[in-house]
Fold this protein.
Amino acid sequence: MSSSGEVTSPVSLTGEMGQLPPRDLSPPWRRLCAFVIDVAILTVLLLPLLIPAVAIRMAHQEELAIAASNPLAQQVAPLPFWATEWFVGIVTVVVFGLYRVPQEAGFGRTIGHRVLGIRIVRFTGARKIGLGRALLRYLVFYGVNVVPVIGSLFMLVNYLWCLFDKPYRQCLHDKVAGTFVVHRSDVRYTPQPPAFDTTPAMPYSTRPPSPPGPPAR
């Protein structure tokens, strides 16, 4: 990371194209903890919506039990339940997108990332990943999650992927968007002062010396 806080390119960090020291990459546990923090914040924001949704679910427990044992479960389950489930899911994706995408696009990190000291960067080392990449990361990960069963499975595979991915520990949404996550405190670079003062004692001048004056009497 440069003195201005910008992450340097992989070439600058290692001297080799396409390699990063493991200490510069965010460990998976930091990414997971950052995600949990962001989800906790989102849950607080969505409480006015979640409380009525839970009340509707509780009111239809008997119908849901019948639906669970019926091959035509979606036809037997009460319409208010399914309408509420889809509505909550769509609103959650939209609200979380409004929370995450602007932060990642403009700062490379959400509140959870800030707390855990990690940052999303591009391979060019740019401090901002931009709106397009941030939106693409979000759609690949959270957009798939709205699909029943497949979404939950994809979420699990996506997060486990970074445990085995080399050399950048990318999740699938990182690969699609061309980003990876670094541990900000590990890659910070602070220029050291020179070992000796390099400032000249007197400023140099390009003007020729003045001719000597007349001898004193």
